[in-house]
Amino acid sequence: MVTKFSRAVRLRAQAVPFRYWQFSGVEFSYWFATACTSFLTSYLQSQGMTTTQVGIISAANSAVGVLAGPFWGMLSDKIRSVRRSLMVCTVAGGLAWVCIPLVGTWVIGGMSFAMLYIPVSCFFRTPISMLKDSWVVGSANTYRLNYGAIRLWGSISYSIMAMGLSVITPFIGMEWTFYLYGITLMPLVVLCRLIRDEESEPAAKRAHYKLRDMHFGRLFKNYYFVTFVIFNILMNVPAGTVSNFLPYRMAEIGVDANQIGTIFGYKALLEIPMLYLMIRFRRRFSLPQMQFAAAALFVGMCAGYACSMNFATLMLVSTVYGLAGGIDIGTATNYIYILAPKELKATAQTVYGAVSSLASIGGNLAAGVLMERMGIQSFFLLAAGLVLAAFLFLLGTMAFGKYVLHKEIPQGARRTHEA
User: 159 CB contacts (<8 Å, ≥6 apart)?
Assistant: First the structure.
């Protein structure tokens, strides 16, 4: 018995380095391809779409995400395989994205067909990120891997691709970014096929895992889960609209739209040191404390883009954006994973994403209209104020939970030396 146990421990230890590089490859391949999607707003802008039209598309994308995220998350938990759902969504999402330039020029009833097609394609594309996060974070926790050290490979690949596209898109055209997305997403499909699921439960038990046994209501009875989801809505909706509509701010101050790849690529580079240092930060700060830092930096990002007047200042503000993004990436997904019950890990990630998408519907619609009425600069300043409100909300709810409700955050979310 002891010999078998010792052998199992030894084999598990030997698997850790291999697993690290496997999931680093997942992050690298996913974000390498995803960098191609950063040109969507610039492409729609080049097709003559206004901020209101782009806002409608973004809102519709979010509406589809509300349905798609929980659907694929619950399916993953039911079949006990996030990997299989991820593989299906990756293949279908990649094929759908490739077709956007082909149908984008169609006009039906005076309306661009792209306004309908792009949101429909999100049924497969939007859940890819949520499912990938759930799979990688779950495996990192299983093998005691440093998630930040895995995720930084995604920032490296995103930066390489985004900056490279800024150089070549003036020669090949923005429509090629859609074709490249489909091509560069294929390594992720291969990795999904090669990496096997953890067989943590007997096959017979997994096969008869019933939806009624999953008790979804437990998520919404968790005080810290609910308040954290609300906080992320308050923070990421305004910050996300600033990022989505940045090409219009660039045009306003005379910066070439092709430089959006350089800006986002540089931002991704700044995420790398934050993700690399995440394990050290965790020894000194809890996950909620690091979210305080991310929110404060996002305030500076929104206000900074509002005040930028040239490419140099845009890049300076992107430094703040990169630091904020690195902290947020390294903490938010992990925190959701820790808060969720074992049988609802994938569902929690997709519900978290879906609720954020639901809020983004109104956020993107309002953003598109408000920017036309009050100006892009004024809207960006408004977004900074909304992110500040999110910071105060998180601070208040954490204090209320601890001192009034006497609820402690889960052990895994505290500083690691306390765990």
Answer: 35, 265, 266, 268, 269, 272
